[in-house]
Amino acid sequence: MVVKSVGSQGIHSIASLLSIPSLLKSPGELTFQGSPTRLPSVVSLRLPPSKSQLIRRIFIRAVQGQPFHNTDFDSTWPKDVQDAWSLVQGFFLQRQRGHQEPDDHLWEAGEAGTVMRFGLAFLVAQGCRGILKGSGRAHERPIGDLVDALVFCGANIEYLAKQGYPPLKIQPSLLTRRNLRLDAGTSSQFISALVLVAPLLGANIDLNENVPWVISCPAQALSSKPYLEMTVKEMKEAGFFLDNSANSVRYFSNRPYQVQGLPLRHEGTENSSFLVEGDWSAASFWIWRQAEVPLCQHLEVKILTNESNQADRIILDLLPLLAPRVSVSFNPDNRSWTIDSLGRDQGLVGKDSDGGHDMATSIVSKSDGIWRIRATDFPDMVPALAMWALLSGNALEIIGIGHLRYKESDRIQALMYNLDLLGIPNGPLALEGIIITPPSSWKDYSQRFVTSQGYGQISGNSFPVFRCFGDHRIAMALSMLALPDLPIPLDEPDVVRKSYPSYWEDWAKFGYTLMSLN
């Protein structure tokens, strides 16, 4: 890989609590309708904002007590971000009315585990009461370790259904900072939630206030560590004093701080260093596809900084090993990366990306013709990496990803189901991973598969409709398999709005259209 720099410059009735209907979704097929003779020259994609960064900023501003204005809201935000906004807006509206919520007041967290976990810590730290519930798979995503930590600090929380899972009933309580050690192997969001509300918690009279509040987890028991680092970084930029080590975060409550209002906009502010960045997780689907089966001659993805702390920026370190024939260049003028596929005979094996090659070798290895990637710290990229294996024809083991079973779907199982539909050999690695062994590259294999199934022929056999399992990242990953002569049918393509509302519109820039199957 070559890296270079170019340019200089609601409230519902309680009766509905435990029976939340799924959103209506209709199947669709991603079909090529462009010119089959040549690829588009340059395609520029403006990625959605990082929902991880944006949700953190929404809660930080709420902790700071900063007012939320209608002009801050963006109707194009991913659904998870809108759910976070609605939750904190609901809190401020209740406080403006000047009265305490009733016991059956419903707080809606939507489907995102991030909003559920951050929202719980925020509402409890603010002394709220009511019932916190979610939608979709939210009530299947564990929250027990966070509840235990909050209860230890003084919270009054009750499970309304399954122990350790939402929905939850909360009662007003006063929380104090008490040093915590909790298991964050399921999610780093448990620690992030506590860090975000640290300024709201009262002092513990048994502790010297000159000593920082410490939240820690057992060594080697922290999943998705970069997301915790993002939380600490955002809190620091907002004016709070924290530091973090390998397995702990320390909050200094005795140091004065000056509130720094962080913008919620993707662009259009004078202080560009604080802009909300584009989503590297979203970028990974395009980059891995472009690396193996190019969609255009020059793919430009923006708005992405050169020094991001998003977990999936590690793709720049993985490319030299997994796709060495790709050239990547950064343009600081418009904060964009351009990805060009140079062709197999022009591969540049061994080229580094600002030292990134060395970083990647600590989590990537290859033996007996099988690549192995430990993706514990960047789980959102796993579906895209699985499709990279199919596109390239490389055997791949992805390990250290047991926490993917608690996402919008059991992502390991969802991938295996769809791989089975295609006859691609695969299997689980205990509870921690998946192995994928495609017989050949996707272009070759898909042609043989279509022929063997009689797809489109008089036999009446049809290409299998892929299941998204209500998961935006599974839907986006499966779409990577679309080819000019191979439409990809999906049972619920609309789920992409959770993180990337304009995803199918962006596919149209390459000549593909999402056609209804109804």
CATH class of the largest domain: Alpha Beta
The strand count comes to 21
CATH superfamily of the largest domain: Enolpyruvate transferase domain
Radius of gyration: 23 Å
Characterize the biggest β-sheet: 5 strands, mixed
| Biggest sheet, spatial arrangement of strands | 1-13-14-12-3
Summed up, the helix count is: 14
* Architecture (CATH level 2) name of the largest domain: Alpha-beta prism
CATH T-level topology of the largest domain: UDP-n-acetylglucosamine1-carboxyvinyl-transferase, Chain
Report the structural category: alpha+beta
Mean pLDDT: 85
Strand content: 15-25%
Helix content: 25-40%
Straight-line N-to-C gap: 43 Å
Number of domains: 2
Q: How would you sum up the global shape? A: globular
